[in-house]
Structures are given as structure tokens and as C-alpha cells.
Write a structure and sequence with these properties.
Layout: H1 6-21, E1 26-32, E2 38-44, H2 48-54, E3 56-58, E4 84-88, E5 94-95, E6 102-110, H3 121-134, E7 138-148, H4 165-181, E8 186-191, E9 197-202, H5 207-227, E10 249-255, E11 258-259, H6 272-292, H7 298-301, E12 311-316, E13 321-326, H8 333-336, E14 338-341, H9 350-366, H10 384-389, E15 393-394, H11 399-407, H12 410-416, H13 418-434, H14 440-447
Parallel strand pairs: 1-6, 12-13
Antiparallel strand pairs: 1-2, 3-4, 4-6, 5-6, 7-9, 7-10, 8-9, 10-11, 10-14, 12-15, 13-14
Length: 451
């Protein structure tokens, strides 16, 4: 964790000089807690060499922070004693285009002896990437980011309407310009279904890079929105009505240079390895809901016939299936075939979500699972007897049920390790109690400005 070599020292000095020339004076170090809230510490640019070598202190109490900043009390967690070190990943050190004077880097967490902290989410992703690599596999992943400015603001008009660009065009240009300046490749950006709602999709990356980019994209949207006198919400349900904001994850599985979701003899051209990986995801979706739909507000969004993926099934280009299989144009299918997890939202910690998804997929791969028959309709309008016959069921309809599935998941406990898994479980159980007696409107109001 310490910078030792002359080349590394020179690189840090060069980076600091370049940032200083660009007017950067402060560096924001971010991590995301188990409640899905991005937290931060900032240091002056001049401290970058010391920061790169030794980090900056932070309390382990954030493992059990809840969405309202209260703290879950659990054995071994949440107390006032102890300290950790935040070390920046200098490979992602980025000047913030929408916040002059600032740079950002995601942080890894270590104990004071320099050992990786077992509750570090970025370390969890790296472990899962290494587990895949041990099987000769790699993944590409990317997020779709939806956010809301609310009705009455820019983009207030018909769903996906061209007319909405008349008053939001300059705003969206600034979002794309800022992301591009920060090295984020934008695939598309557009008005979404709700008035004042937008979506941006970014290019697939390695899993850790995708999670880092998800954090950077959200912060950039917030900063650009603030500069326009607006306030963005990434909450699952930012208002008492509507379909809410999703946080869809796309992924593909690779061996060498071959996409294992294409060119095989399995369903829709999957290879047996790719099919087994997706079957593992499908098997673990009830437990994954507690990771990717972590807020009581998540289950207000996760409703049938709203394109939220409320049923545990898969289908080719089926936007009502929790697992949507995407082949893309035939001419590009060899590198574009991927799966989309539609049921998740942006209350989720993206590192936890990426790591847990890989863990579930690898478990399916190792068990050589096979997918059930695909479903080519809206399960919300299907005959319940037909759904039962085919084993298609609703995903958990509330956090209590999702937590129950998480608690019983040997796959996720083994992948996360007891420390991270038990801290996550403590936070989910505490938030479930926190919102147990709140109405729909009270839940929305309590969470819409937290994400």
C-alpha cells in the first residue's frame, strides 16, 4: 500500500503537477457504504504524495451507517473505536470537469497495519474478478444511470419526447461534455419515461472500472445539475407516483477474446459456459435483491408491468423479465451479446452489486446450471397457473423478504466473507426496522434526497 519505486514516486509527482496546472486544489476520496450512500473525505492536492503512500484515516463505523445517517448497533460493528486508512486508486484519479478546483479518486480501505480491510467493497470486487480469472474467465460490465429532476423542470413533456430537448438540450450537453472530459465514454443519453427524468448509458468496462464509473457518473450529474440550479435524484422512487429510477447492469462473460454469450449451441446462441453463468444469476436473484434493491423504497419501484423486472425469469429482449438477454444487431452480436439485470436500482452500492453478481454467476458456472425455458411475454399479465408451472415467481415484494433470502445465501456469504456479509445484513435488517411503520409517502420522502 506504500509507494516505493522511483517510477511510482515520479508518476505521483507528475500527476500532482498536471492537476495543479489545471487548477486542482482538493482531491475527493470516495467510498460507498453498505446503505448505498457515497461518502467522502477530501485532502489538499499538496498532500497527494503522502496520501498515495499512507492514506488518510476514516472510521470503520461507516460499515453500519444507515440511509438516514443513524448507525446500526451489531456485535463487532458500529462502535466508536478503531480506524482505517483510505488509499486512492491513482489509476482513476480524475479532474472533475463540473467542479473546478477538484479532483476525485475512489478509495480502497486498509487497516492500519496495511492489510486489506475485509469490509472493503472494492477489494470484494477484485476477489471476484480474480476468482473468475482462476477459471479462465473475464467480464465486461456497464451501468445505465437514470435520474429525476422532477416535473416542472427541464425535460417536462412526453415520454422520450424530442420536444423535451428544447429546454434540456443545453443541460444534457453539459452532462456529456463533463463525462467525456473525465474519460467516460457515453453510449447514449435521452429523456426517459417520467417528466424531468433522464438516462445515460456508458461503455462496458472491467467490473471494478464499471463500479467506479457508476459513482463518478452520478456525482457528475449532481454537479452539472447544481450548476444549472437543479437537484438530481437517483432514488428508486423520487416522488409519490411514477415508475421510479432504475440502475440496470449489463454484463458479458469472456474467455480469451471470445464472448461466451454468443456463438454457442445453447439458448439464443449462448455457449454452455455463458448459459450456466446466467442461470446462476437467475437462481440467486431473490438474495441479490437485498443487494441491488436495498431500500424499502426499492420495492415501491419493483412493480409488475412497469419494465422494472419484477419477476424471476429471463427472455430475449424482454423488458419485463428480471434477466433480459440482449443480442444486438446480427452483424455485431459476437461482441455485443450481453445480459441486463433490470430489477436493480441506484440505492445499491455498485461495488457490492458487481461483486455479488459475479459470485452468483460463477456459482452457476461451477454447478453447470441450465436456464429454464425463456419467457416471451409480460409475466404480470400471464395466467398464474402458467407461471407456477414454469417456476416463474415474483421477486421479493419487500425488504423483509429479500433480507430473508440474503440471510440464507451460502453463495453470497462465502463470496463476501463473514465480516462484510454480516455488516451488510445488519444494515439491511436495521433499515427494514427503520421503515417498518412508515407509509408509502413517508418512505419516498425519507429517501428521495439521499441517493
Amino acid at each position: 500500500m506504500t509507494v516505493h519505486t522511483a517510477d511510482e514516486v515520479a508518476w505521483v509527482d507528475q500527476a500532482m503537477a498536471g492537476l495543479s496546472e489545471a487548477g486542482v486544489r482538493l482531491i475527493a476520496l470516495s467510498w460507498v457504504d453498505n446503505a448505498g450512500i457515497a461518502r467522502v473525505k477530501a485532502v489538499p492536492l499538496g498532500r497527494l504524495p503522502k496520501l498515495a503512500a499512507h492514506g488518510v484515516g476514516m472510521s470503520p463505523v461507516f460499515d453500519t451507517f444507515l440511509v438516514d445517517d443513524s448507525i446500526a448497533r451489531a456485535d463487532g460493528y458500529g462502535g466508536p473505536v478503531g480506524d482505517l486508512l483510505l488509499l486512492p486508486d491513482l489509476n482513476r484519479l480524475t479532474r472533475l470537469a463540473a467542479q473546478p478546483g477538484w479532483a476525485w479518486a475512489p478509495a480502497d480501505r486498509y487497516d492500519q497495519g496495511g492489510e486489506p480491510y475485509p469490509g472493503c467493497h472494492r477489494a470484494f470486487v477484485n476477489r471476484m474478478v480474480q476468482a473468475a480469472a482462476g477459471l479462465g474467465l473475464s467480464l465486461r460490465m456497464g451501468f445505465e444511470t437514470e435520474w429525476s429532476l422532477g416535473p416542472g423542470g427541464p425535460g417536462d413533456g412526453p415520454a422520450y419526447g424530442l420536444s423535451r430537448l428544447a429546454d434540456s438540450g443545453a443541460y444534457l450537453l453539459d452532462v456529456v461534455d463533463a463525462l467525456t472530459a473525465q474519460g467516460v465514454e457515453v453510449l447514449q443519453i435521452h429523456p426517459e419515461y417520467e417528466p424531468g427524468q433522464f438516462e445515460v448509458s456508458t461503455a462496458a468496462e472491467d467490473p471494478l472500472g464499471a463500479a467506479d464509473t457508476a459513482v463518478l457518473v452520478r456525482h457528475t450529474v449532481r454537479a452539472v445539475s447544481h450548476a444549472h440550479g437543479l437537484r438530481a435524484s437517483f432514488a428508486p422512487l423520487p416522488g409519490p407516483e411514477g415508475i421510479g429510477n432504475g440502475g440496470h447492469v449489463h454484463l458479458s462473460l469472456w474467455r480469451g477474446g471470445r464472448n461466451l454469450l454468443h456463438g454457442g449451441t445453447g439458448p439464443r446462441g449462448m455457449t454452455p459456459e455463458g448459459e450456466a453463468f446466467l442461470a446462476g444469476l437467475l437462481r440467486s436473484l431473490p438474495a441479490l435483491a437485498a443487494v441491488g434493491c436495498p431500500s424499502p423504497a426499492s420495492y415501491l419501484r419493483l412493480a409488475p408491468s412497469s419494465w422494472s423486472g419484477a419477476y424471476r425469469c429471463w427472455g430475449w429482449e424482454n423488458r419485463e423479465a428480471a434477466l433480459r438477454f440482449v443480442t444486438g444487431p446480427a452483424s455485431e452480436a459476437s461482441h455485443r451479446a450481453n445480459a441486463e439485470l433490470k430489477c436493480f436500482d441506484q440505492a445499491a452500492n455498485p461495488y457490492l452489486l458487481v461483486g455479488a453478481a459475479i459470485a452468483a454467476g460463477l456459482a452457476g458456472y461451477e454447478d453447470a446450471l441450465r436456464l429454464p425455458e425463456e419467457f416471451a411475454d409480460d409475466p404480470g399479465h400471464a395466467d398464474p397457473a402458467e407461471l407456477e408451472r414454469r417456476g416463474i415467481e415474483r421477486l421479493p415484494t419487500g425488504l423483509t423478504a429479500a433480507v430473508g433470502h440474503l440471510r440464507e445465501s451460502g453463495v453470497l456469504r462465502k463470496a463476501m466473507g463473514d465480516h462484510l456479509f454480516d455488516a451488510l445484513l445488519a444494515v439491511r435488517e436495521a433499515e427494514d426496522r427503520l421503515f417498518a411503520d412508515r407509509s408509502r409517502d413517508e418512505t419516498v420522502e425519507a429517501t428521495r434526497r439521499r441517493y
